[in-house]
Structures are given as C-alpha cells and as structure tokens.
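Lecture notes, continued. The same structure-token format from the folding unit now serves as the input rather than the output. Read the line below as a description of shape only.
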C-alpha cells in the first residue's frame, strides 16, 4: 500500500535531489538549502513536465509495477486481512494518547507535532504567500517537531546513566 502511493510522488520530485549536480551530491544539506530547494521544486516540477511533454519523453514511466497479477493482488489482500485479524485478537498497543514509535518505543510529549504537519504548515505558507522568493525566511520555531527529538534525549539520559553505573 505504501509504495503504490509514494512512488508517483517520490520518483519525479526526489530524482532531482540525488542526481549529479542535484541537491546532495555527497554532502550534508543545511536547513536554508533544503528550504530553498523545497520552495523551488514546485516551479521545477512544472518546467520538467513541460519539457517532457514537448519532447515526448516521459522519464517516470515504468513497467515494474504493471505486472501485478490478480492472484498476487488477492494474496496481498488475504495477507492484509490475516494481519488485521491478528491485531484484533492480540492487540500489542497500549491505550495511550501520546505518539509512540513502534520501532524504538520512544514516547512523544507535548512538543511532538509531526502528526499535525498539515495544520502546522498551513499558517507558515500563508505567512510567506505573495512574498519575494529571496526574502522568504523560515523560522525554526515554526518547524514541525518529529519524534526523533525525544530519541536523542533518551540516548543522552542512557549514556549519562551508564557513566555512573560503571563506577
């Protein structure tokens, strides 16, 4: 389910980030560079689409996902139903209003707002709407806070505790 939704969005937008002369080319990316690249991608996408249409060459067409047989789809649906039924009978998730990472077990607090990315982002877009591209500034306080900020705090606490338990 994830890849079928992600692929049409990721392929055209992210291929430019990883190509030679693209955004990363072997180095890290600062916040300001990422912000400007993100803002410019909307215009670049329309330009690339226009060039592809004019030339009659479409770079995002791929036959790799078209060879899905009916039996494969049925098998995937059956597997999905099996997993859902298992979770109905053996729910491993605690009733909790906080956001919890399934892979690490890190529990979010009131600062974590990544699940509200759209609601947090709309006022920011409205603030810069109509502004000159070169004068746009993104404030760090307006950034969505991911669950990983809690993970770093937990790692620090664990390493701090380890220093005193070894003595």
């Amino acid at each position: 389910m994830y890849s079928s939704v992600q692929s049409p969005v990721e392929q055209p937008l992210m291929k430019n980030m990883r190509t030679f002369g693209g955004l990363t080319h072997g180095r890290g990316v600062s916040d300001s560079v990422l912000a400007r690249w993100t803002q410019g991608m909307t215009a670049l996408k329309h330009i690339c689409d226009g060039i592809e249409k004019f030339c009659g060459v479409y770079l995002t067409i791929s036959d790799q996902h078209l060879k899905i047989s009916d039996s494969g789809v049925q098998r995937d649906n059956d597997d999905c139903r099996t997993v859902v039924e298992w979770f109905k009978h053996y729910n491993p998730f605690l009733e909790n209003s906080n956001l919890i990472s399934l892979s690490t077990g890190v529990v979010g607090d009131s600062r974590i707002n990544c699940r509200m990315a759209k609601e947090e982002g709309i006022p920011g877009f409205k603030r810069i709407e109509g502004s000159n591209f070169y004068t746009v500034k993104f404030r760090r306080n307006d950034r969505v806070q991911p669950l990983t900020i809690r993970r770093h705090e937990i790692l620090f606490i664990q390493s701090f505790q380890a220093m005193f338990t070894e003595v």
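Point for the exam: The chain is about 55% helix and 0% strand.
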